[in-house]
Amino acid sequence: MWATVAKHLLKSKVHSCVAHASLKLRKNTCINAGLLLQFTRCQHRAGTVLVEQAAQSVTMICNVQVLDDKRFVCIHWEDGSQSSYPFVWLRDNCQCPECFLLSAKARKLPFENLDVNTGVKDVSLTKEQKVSITWPDEHHSEFDPDWLKKRSFSKRSREEMRKEFFEPEQHFWGSDLQIPTMSYENVLHSDHSAYSWLCALKKVGIVILEGAPIEQGELVTLGKRIGYMRHTFYGYTWQVQDKVDANNVAYTSGKLSLHTDYPALQYPPGVQFLHCLKQSETGGESEMVDGFHICHKLRELNPEAFNILTSTQVDFTDTGVDYCDFSLQSKHRIIALDQNGGLLRINFNNATRDSVFDIPAEEVQAFYSSLKQFINLMYKPENTLSFKMKPGQVVTFDNWRILHGRRRYHSGGDVSRHLEGSYLDWDVVMSRMRALKEKLQSQNGFTQTLK
Question: Does 165 map to a domain?
């Protein structure tokens, strides 16, 4: 299973362009040239990186046209495809030092100084096949063909960019999942292992790290490997154990129903770490469910229930004292969708679902019936994954996607079960993942700008 899940996690193509001649043009001028390159495809299987090299041809510019009526510069690529770039976008994204701060990869040109109705005075193709533009005010811009190709406005290119940045491949699962497991020490000290871990975390939603020191505070080290942890009203880290006068149902020895953490926040944490320091002799098994898998099932079985859970705003609350005193209120849809109708996040914690319910009374019964079917699907044996954590294991999982719970355990006079937890935001995790990808590509002789 893991070979299927983890393959093709690191993939790069580097386009290099060498032109045979320089050229000044307005319309229908063609350069033909070819070049071979090698690319590295890293396949990660539980921390192992396999590097394969192969030769591929590079697409180059064949023809450039200025389409004054549409206000486009149209590039005809050697592979037969075309890309059209609006004048205003090209001027807005000039890469010269006056307009762009390379060290920060940030635009310097103020929008108030941008002529949104600009034309072009001249277009030329350099011997390096860079597209050179002279603007009516004599400002000069040059654009690398690889840079332009990646930013094509074609439907296919935009879809590829969306997938790379926002819609990576996901593997949905049920109770038969073999949880990806990696070495904690390898993740800390190997960039290949760290990248493999984060890619698997995004794709599968859960990864277990083995061999962490059995001592409190170790999650701080793991958090720093990525960037920084999310500070909440429960602190940077928090201790999951049976406590007197518990301020959270997790701090008891009773059963924890399947839930996502912190929907009482307007922006719930994206990733959660749980480090097992001590495990109870009986009970305390962890339960995990792929919430996105359940959403797909619900949409197939009962589209009306799915629509209700994706459209009804539910109130959540959390009040108490921990790191400091707090009184939280939020509204979320149980199933949150993105702007394209894709699954974005599950927001469900029955313990903190508020008794306040801001919908008409006539809609309440239908909501409860829909939520009940959603919960029933979660607890079907074929959908629920159960396992018992061992001291030294760190389970890392997607809190926007995975619902987790715990079976009841026996608690005596001493602390019989102790997990330490922490949160991170997906922005931080994805940032580290992209940075590691760039670093690994650079180490293999490649460079690629991800911004």
Answer: no
